[in-house]
Specification:
The protein has about 100 residues and is an all-alpha fold. The chain has helices at about 10-15, 30-40, 45-60, 60-75, 80-90. The chain folds into 2 domains: about 10-40, no CATH class; about 45-90, Lyase 2-enoyl-coa Hydratase, Chain  A, domain 2 (Orthogonal Bundle). Helix content is about 65%, strand content about 0%.
Length: about 100
């Protein structure tokens, strides 16, 4: 596909895992906002760490990405939101993340 420049339909892109979701025409912005809201509801400390780790791995290689994971995991687990997530799971209740 990359070498030949062949076009791929939305359905085919979904089938082969090229995209996460295929939506009806005209619904892309609505779907994107729903996804953004889901991400925004997650603990920001973890989201930042995941983004940094993924970007490091993509730009500097897998070994650098793995080292970044190790460096960040202690900070994530030491965060208020990590403790809140565990407490909410044990309660059980919905977590209230303060993004710190």
């Amino acid at each position: 596909m990359i070498l030949l420049g062949d076009a791929v339909s939305a359905a085919k892109a979904g089938d082969i895992g090229l995209v996460d979701e295929v939506v009806e025409p005209g619904q892309a912005a609505v779907s994107a906002m729903e996804l953004a809201q889901r991400i925004a509801s997650l603990p920001a400390v973890a989201v930042r760490a995941i983004k940094k780790s993924m970007n490091t791995g993509l730009t500097q290689g897998m070994q650098a990405g793995s080292k970044c994971d190790i460096d960040l995991i202690a900070d994530v687990f030491a965060s208020h939101d990590a403790r809140e997530g565990v407490a909410a799971m044990l309660a059980p209740r919905e977590p209230t993340f303060l993004h710190r």
